[in-house]
Amino acid sequence: MKKHWPAVVGGVAVVAAVAIAAPSAVGAPTGTRAETGTRAETGTRAASTAAATASAAVRPAAPAATPAPAAAAVAPAGDPVRTVRPGQRVDAGRGFTVWLTREGKHWTGPDGYENFRSVVDGNIDRSEPGVSHQSEGDATGVFHSGVYYGSRKAGRVELSDAEGHRTVATLVALPGRPDWGVWYAHTGPSAGNGGGGLGVTLYDRGGRLLAELPGFDVPTGRG
Fold first, then answer.
1. Which of 28, 124, 144, 191 is deepest in the core (most CB within 10 A)?
2. Angle CA 73–114–223, to nearest 5
3. Closest listed residue to residue 143, CA positions, set 94, 177, 100, 179
């Protein structure tokens, strides 16, 4: 009798199928055929699973996805400029409140009187670094504030008097770090000119001088 060698396709799976077929041809019970067929399929799945396991063992693991950082309400730690939303009220201390809009700087004092300084009316030249200064106060102290502009690298605003005393201001800006922002600070009472005699200096984040506004002797206030 001629022998027919089965083709080997996928290893043991085809050989098992040929071995199973022989009992069927001679009238093996149906139950036996079904049971044997199940074993053949199980062997095929086991072989496939083993191959997949071996492939996974040599395949480099995919790097874990890094979750996107949550949007921060303020600038990261170490950033000298605090980021605030348009219209967000900032407690500037001692009854003063400051907020920014796309048009400019707003603030109120303890008396509730609202003030505004525009950054879009052409009154300041934002093509180069500069700083402005408004102040109001009384015998208990003076509130100073202003706009710095012309640079996205602003890092510090300082007030200084004739004796060299310095006060570092707080800086706030809108999201996206536009080329302008607002600074504010408090000092003790100043005789005669409401705090206008203090000079204001703007530095970048590396400490380089960007702009300087000398003090003046004209009394200042809300105007």
1. 144
2. 120
3. 94
The fraction of the chain above a pLDDT of 70, given in percent, is: 60
The residue type at 44: T
- Whether residue 215 contacts residue 199, with contact meaning beta carbons closer than 8 Å, is answered with yes
Q: Name which of 126, 137, 140 is nearest 211 in CA terms.
A: 126
C-alpha 42: how far from its chain's center?
Answer: 54
- As a whole number of angstroms, the distance between CA 212 and CA 202 comes to 6
Q: How far apart are CA 174 and CA 74, in angstroms?
A: 10
User: How far, in Å, CA of 164 to CA of 176, rounded?
Assistant: 35
Phi, psi for 80 (deg, rounded to 5):
-75, -10
Distance (Å, rounded) from C-alpha 182 to C-alpha 100? 8
Q: How far apart are CA 82 and CA 175, in angstroms?
A: 9
Question: Is the pLDDT score of 105 beyond 70?
Answer: yes
| Distance (Å) of CA 183 to CA 3, 92, 175 | 97, 10, 16
Instruction: Say what the pTM is.
Output: 0.63
Pairing of strands 166-168, 154-160: antiparallel
What's the confidence (pLDDT) of residue 180?
Answer: 98
Bridge partners, residue 157, by sequence? 202
* Beta bridge partners of residue 173, listed in sequence order: 83
Read off the pLDDT of each residue in 104-112 and give the average, rounded to a whole number.
96
Handedness of CA 193, 218, 132, 212 (dihedral sign): negative
